Amino acid sequence: MNRDSHLRRHVLMTGMPGCGKTTLLKSLAHELRGLRPAGFYTEEIRLQGQRKGFRLVGLNGATGLLAHVDIHGGPRVGKYGVDVHGFEEFLDAQKLDQIATPLVFIDEIGKMECLSARFVDLVRHLLDSSKTVVATVALKGGGLIAEVKQRPDVVLVEVNPGNRDRLVEDLASRVAAFTGR
């Protein structure tokens, strides 16, 4: 399969940490709310100005814990203990592979999330399904992170603070076209 633009139907946004990937994803979810998308994004957990962890927020309002400095035992990414079991329970409740929507948002395909084999399988399944996936993806990394960037059916967009706001309208119209809406 070649990388002709008419074959692409997923959008992956990458860039340096803090460049605005999550902000862009949330803006796109808002712009495309008429398609009734499913999915989730991550938020920082801060205490007295210091980042302590990451919370999962479903587009349906559900929340869960992804990682925290106070999680001990189990896998770690940097200073954060990752709650793989809690993440998988959150994913199961979201039913992203079962819900009747043409559009799924994922924030993010990153090192913490990829510690879950269930997440890795879910991402592959969603990308192979008829749904359109809009996701943030870590700038660096192997495994699934590298794999999804090489797929012929994705548009890979590098986000930076200078282009983040301009990308909303362009990507929203592309995604709407991908879903046939």
UniProtKB/TrEMBL annotation:
Pfam families: NTPase_1 (PF03266). Residues 7-162 form the AAA+ ATPase domain. InterPro entries: AAA+_ATPase (IPR003593), Nuc-triphosphatase_THEP1 (IPR004948), P-loop_NTPase (IPR027417). Keywords: ATP-binding, Hydrolase, Nucleotide-binding. SMART domains: AAA (SM00382). One of its GO terms (molecular function) is ribonucleoside triphosphate phosphatase activity. Gene3D superfamilies: P-loop containing nucleotide triphosphate hydrolases. The keyword ATP-binding applies. PANTHER family: CANCER-RELATED NUCLEOSIDE-TRIPHOSPHATASE. This is Nucleoside-triphosphatase THEP1. It comes from Desulforhabdus amnigena.
